Amino acid sequence: MRTHLLPLLVALLGAPLAPAQGTGTLDGSWITKMDFSPPIRDMYKGIVLQERGDGRVAGYLPGSVSVWLTSGQITGNHVYLEFLGGDGTGPSLGGPFVASFDGTLSGNKIAGLFSDPTDTFPITWTRISKRAMEESWIFTDSLTGDTNRVGRVERKGSFAAGGFGGQNTCNFLACGGHLNSWDITGNSHSLMLTSSGLCPTLGYMNGTFDSANNVLSGTWTNTTCSTTTNGSFTALKEGLTDTSHVEAVLTLLIKFADRLEAESPLAIKAFSNSYLDNGVTKGDWNNILSGWFLSYDNLSATIETVSKIITMNDGETSSSLADDPRVDWHFKLMGTPSSGGSPVVLLEYIPFSLGGTELFYIGPEAGKAVFVGNGQ
Fold first, then answer.
1. What is the value of pTM for the model shown?
2. Domain for residue 324, yes or no?
3. Range(s) of the domain holding residue 201
4. Phi, psi at residue 35, to the nearest 5°?
5. Is 325 part of a structural domain of the chain?
6. DSSP state letter for 41
7. Residue 362 placed within a domain
8. How many domains is the chain built from?
9. Which single residue of 226, 264, 273, 310 has CA 20 to 30 Å from 286?
10. For each successive 10 residues of the chain (376 residues), what is the average pLDDT?
């Protein structure tokens, strides 16, 4: 059985897990205001960024369920980021939405142009120091069983932004899009969701939260290409995180990747001393890493996407979805055999829903985030 680490991680909220941030660097949490025309409300979208040793950038978009940062580079004060949008099948399988940001870092602001397939427009990211909280929910259409994951971000105690994405099809509302509002009055919840494209979507959800069973249930209506459909839904919260934990998790992933490329023995520090995953221990990983360093040259470690981070449960989390702290990410390590030949894939870790658990579960150790395994 895996030891529950959530209480310990929650206890560390008052002392974040050693995130690296500060003015003059890209590391940290950022927000930008997105303006919409009524009745759609303006939102504050966030991004958490961390620099790698050679200027590459990894990051995470809280609440943006169907859009992921795939690559980035900072050269001097020039910042370039690339994004990929999913089509209801998850980041490892790709999607039709490709976008980029080209801008300049100046103190606590990054100003530049954001470009997607339909438009190019200026945005400014502003660094924030206070934590933002991200909740992750699974909404299920009562008739078809189709599901959407919905991310809800709160900042300063109020709704800030969010997003949704189909987990198996695009039939429930849309393939993905914005969560423009989520109002809560007592046990009553009201949501507005939108998406763009050839047939823009405007959807509403209204429901009641049953605190005895931790289930949100209600009705939905959706208008796409002038066609309106409706139905009913249930929703379960699978957990939450905050931006300080996200920064700590990104630090773990980046240090692991950079140390692998440097063939550094410090790469093993990414694993807990008590790591155990399907019989594999930290000692086994040390032997694996040593073998790679001995037998391969020109190691290349790529963080393809970081698609979901959950580090906490709360009183609303569904017992059927509650689990230990975890990170869904896509990682690839390649190397060239020392004896010669073409580069080969040494390790490719894909999101948990499609793969294993060896680099999925995380926890705190000595004030930092580490991989802990599934405990079996």
1. 0.90
2. yes
3. 132-240
4. -90, 135
5. yes
6. P
7. yes
8. 3
9. 310
10. 42 40 75 75 85 96 92 96 70 62 96 89 92 96 95 92 87 88 96 83 95 98 90 98 96 98 98 97 98 98 96 96 96 97 95 83 96 96
